[in-house]
Amino acid sequence: MAELLQARGIVHAYAGKPALSGVDFTLRAGEVHALMGQNGAGKSTLIKVLTGAAPLQTGRISLAGQPIRPASTQEAQALGISTVYQEVNLCGNLSVAENIFAGRQPLRRWTRGGGIDWRALNQRARTLLAGLDFEIDVRQELRTFPVAVQQMVAIARAIDISARVLILDEPTSSLDSDEVEKLFAAMRRLRESGMAIVFVTHFLDQVYAVSDRITVLRNGALVGEYAAASLDHAALVAAMVGRTASGREATPNDPPPARTTTGEQHPVVQARNLARRGSVAAVNLEIRPGEILGLAGLLGSGRTEVARLLFGLDRADAGEIRINGQAVSLGCPAQAIAHRMAFCPEERKTEGIVEDLSIRDNIVLTLQARMGLWRKLAAAERIEITNRLARMLDIRAASLDIPIGELSGGNQQKCMIARALATNPQLLILDEPTRGIDVAGKQEIMNQLTQLAAQGMALLFISAEVDELLRVATHIVVMRDRRQAGTLPGGSTEDQVYALIAAPAEGVQ
Amino acid sequence: MRALARRLLAQPLFWPCLTLGLLITLNAALNPGFLALAWRDGHLFGNLIDILNRAAPLALVAAGMTLVIAARGLDISVGAVVAIAAATGALCVSATGSLAVAVVAALAVALACGLWNGLLVVAVGMQPIIATLILMVAGRGIAQLITSGQIITIYYAPYDFIGNGFLLGLPIAAVLAVAVIVLLHTLLSVTPLGLYIRAIGINPLAARIAGVRARPITLCLYGFCGLMAGLAGLIISSNVKSADANNAGTLLELDAILAVTLGGTALTGGRFSLAGTAIGALIIQTLTSTIYSLGVPPEVNLVFKAALIFVVMLLQSAEFRASIRGLATRPLDPA
């Protein structure tokens, strides 16, 4: 295969702090090339340098043999390098077609009145999406579509602007497995047409489902470039974390604890036929002290909705919730918190962090809110609590007094867990706490969860990654199509869970 | 020295203070007696005291507005609430001859107005600007109903005291405004309320999920804003010894929003400064005095005020200052 994009000896530093130290990267036409590494390994920096978002400080980049030095993303795009980011950077209030051709709309000749040629615009958008095997009404507003479709539109826009190198930065983190499969189909199609695709992701399974080659970075340095077929899971993880391989079989928490040890204790929380119209139907579950209930299911299966009902974020219109045996009515999160519940929401940015407040204020917010309107947490106590939790969860920040918005996603997530733990809850609900976090960080969080359970906390752990759930859960409730598909004991196999989830999408698992 | 200058420039109150200082200097240059203070009949007199006194209603309204804006709201009905409170106070004092009844009734009605706005926003889920637009338009009508379309003149002497009296040598209105703002500031820093308001302003949903009782707090902020408008209404009606449903507090909502902005509070919510708002109100009142002392003809009065405000806002805009700095320090083109 022809080498299309070559980067040699890339060194990059932010304000004197090195982020990349002499990295080589080679991309060939007609391949999907996975770029792997933990948070802070230098993936994003490398992508920024390749796409002109960060200036090339030291090193050489060449595209099809010609040296290039893109000074802006526009320049990189003109050369044929496009990027689609994790968060869709499009305008929700414009139509799909307008988004694809924004700034490049086909115009009518002035003899015909000038202005935008809407017919050509929509026709071209339809043709382009059809090429990705996608049929939607291109005249509809973009925001009316799910994120997966928006992502596809972003990709369509990127490949229409320039079609040599396409960089996908964590495109799958908000997609469910059907949608991931669609995206992969599009990627394979583009690969056959000779495009070179860089694929950044945290999901190991997905790397193998679609990639031909894998480049691994660690601490800003190149670990190596491998053919995907010749590098197994364990070896890949080892390359990323720089430790000897310990596959998912050898995690420290195996085998999962059985629930018999705590069987006699009163459940901390019990849900009986809990339901809300348009949200979920008839959920039954109970969690005792020291237990971790895993909640499995596909995106949109009702996982998050169960958590919202239990935490009083939505009001149930049928069934009951009992806390320590007492029936309660929860009308708002503050009431759930008063019953010593805590919740880490899935949408960290919109529902979790309060961006401009300091890390400390973010961590103590729930604890403070529980104390009411008038009594303020003592300054010394505030500092002691936040220091202790930052140490315990290994929150890395220049100072705990900087705005939380300046932290990386993984550290923000840890702050959300810290906020929950600061209230010393009896029930902790975690919705996708490991999303967007690297392998080592995931393992840390999982270890924390088991420790908390060992100290007698009851946990509800929601995750799309079944192997993660199986590793820690004492029992598992599986959701399907917004109802409870079944309950499994701890120590069940992935196959058993998937059998309940219904036909898992092929290729993703 | 440079480090000190930089620290000074980074102070959020630096630009509002500088603006106020410049305006006062301008006035002092134009009118040599501007800064003079005199002690007469046991009271302080002078232009500065006058500004303090006249800025008081605006400062009170703007203080309420600051908190509403900080929690991502807006209240454009405050001018109308001023008229309602003034009418209620005037009517009650005429009917009962009791100052206490008049004050309590006016404040209660104003509080109810504020809570009504809050309910529309919190419980009905209306956009704040639309929710308060309702009372802004309807409020003048309500005030006219209360006064039966007449201008009620107040003949009861004690009522005068609110707007024209003195305490410790200072005008009552100014003392009231300073006391309210200082008390409020203290309340927000010794209780966690300030933190809650900021959290709600930055991300209302995240604040609610974190257990902050965002809805009741927001409701109370609108109620407080109404209450402040009521207090301002009492002062204004007492000042002119009458309640005019059509003209009391007209465009006060815009002046209040302007004062809040001048003081460095972000209109997008989250970041707020009560001290800044107080300075903002003083800036606006000083501007008005400047226009009078310059002898600007009445017909160009508003244009002149607009131009001055434009300059002040430019000075306060970080983007504008950055572009000026860019012009000043741009290296010469080597070609």
Task: Summarize this structure briefly.
The complex is a heterodimer of chains A (509) and B (335). Chain A has helices spanning 43-50, 73-79, 96-101, 118-131, 147-161, 177-192, 204-210, 233-241, 303-310, 333-338, 348-352, 359-370, 379-392, 409-422, 439-454, 466-472, 494-501, and strands at residues 3-14, 17-28, 32-36, 58-63, 66-68, 81-84, 165-169, 196-200, 213-218, 221-227, 269-276, 280-287, 292-296, 318-323, 326-328, 341-344, 427-431, 458-462, 475-480, 483-489.
Count of DSSP helices of chain A? 17
Identify low-pLDDT runs of chain A.
245-262, 503-509
Question: Biggest sheet of chain A, open or closed, and with what strands and sense?
Answer: 6 strands, mixed
Number of strands of chain A: 20
Assembly state (oligomeric): heterodimer
Instruction: Write down the overall mean pLDDT of chain B.
Output: 88
The CATH class assignment of the largest domain in chain A is Alpha Beta
| Structural class based on helices, strands and sheet pairing of chain A | alpha/beta
Describe the structure.
- By secondary structure, chain A is α/β, with parallel strands linked by helices.
- Chain A folds into two domains: 3-93 and 141-244, 3-Layer(aba) Sandwich (Rossmann fold); 259-501, Rossmann fold (3-Layer(aba) Sandwich).
- Helix content of chain A is 34%, strand content 24%.
- Chain A starts with a strand and ends in an 8-residue tail after the last helix.
- The model of chain A is unreliable at 245-262 and 503-509 (pLDDT under 50).
- Chain B has one domain: Orthogonal Bundle (ABC transporter involved in vitamin B12 uptake, BtuC), CATH 1.10.3470.
- Chain B contains 15 helices and six strands.
- In chain B, the strands form three sheets. A two-stranded antiparallel ribbon of chain B has the order 1-2. In chain B, strands 3-6 form a two-stranded antiparallel ribbon.
- In chain B, helix 4 crosses helix 11 and helix 12 packs across helix 13.
- Chain B is globular and about 65 Å long.
- The A-B interface holds A 311, 313, 332-334, 337, 343, 345, 350-357, 361, 365-366, 368-371, 373-377, 419 and B 190-193, 195-196, 198-199, 202-203, 205-213, 215, 217, 270-271.
